[in-house]
Amino acid sequence: MIYVTKLNDEEVVVNCDLIEVIEETPNTIITLTTGKKIIAKESSKEIIEKIIRYKTYLSKRLREGHDNG
């Protein structure tokens, strides 16, 4: 899950596993596999960086949990 900022400055949480397409038109439009679209203030590059950070965090937690038994 990642936080993105809508054009009205409302922050929403997006399940990044459901992202199908990210377009810049020039607004950033996130299309989910459900067909829902979210227009975000962040650039596609920023959103991708958030996804990478989130996935890295999850991977690290999984390894730590596995190492701790």
From TrEMBL:
InterPro entries per the UniProt record, alphabetical: SwrD-like (IPR009384)
Which keywords are on file for this protein?
A: Cell projection, Cilium, Flagellum
Q: Which Pfam families match?
A: FlbD
Instruction: Identify this protein by name.
Output: Flagellar FlbD family protein
Which species is the source of this protein? Vallitalea pronyensis
